[in-house]
Specification:
Length: 106
């Protein structure tokens, strides 16, 4: 069996053997992409002399290999003076909820 040039493939294909016979297994995927993004990708692929499929494959490979960077977020802290309001006890959730709802005496 001769080698099939990649440019002749209509889909992503893998050569495998099923029951001792070489077979191409192909997969097609439909994606909904932003029109502007596709236009820019097509222009970049043309500029590089490659296909849109190859450009997308390359971008996916890079994204999947690169570790995800997480940005550390600094949350504001408030250092109040004093303590609890008079009549507030942290021992009773119900009393705290009443206070928040405005049902507790002040």
């Amino acid at each position: 069996m001769g080698v099939v040039p990649r440019a002749a493939w209509n889909a992503v294909c893998v050569l495998t053997e099923i029951c001792g016979q070489p077979v191409f297994i192909c997969m097609r995927t439909t994606l909904d992409l932003n029109d502007t993004l596709v236009r820019r990708a097509k222009a970049l692929a043309a500029e590089r002399g490659t296909s849109l499929t190859q450009l997308i494959e390359e971008a996916l490979r890079e994204k999947l290999v690169r570790p995800t960077r997480r940005t550390r977020v600094k949350l504001p802290t408030f250092r109040g003076r004093g303590g609890l309001r008079p009549g507030v006890s942290l021992e009773s959730t119900a009393a705290l909820l009443d206070l928040l709802d405005g049902d507790a005496p002040r």
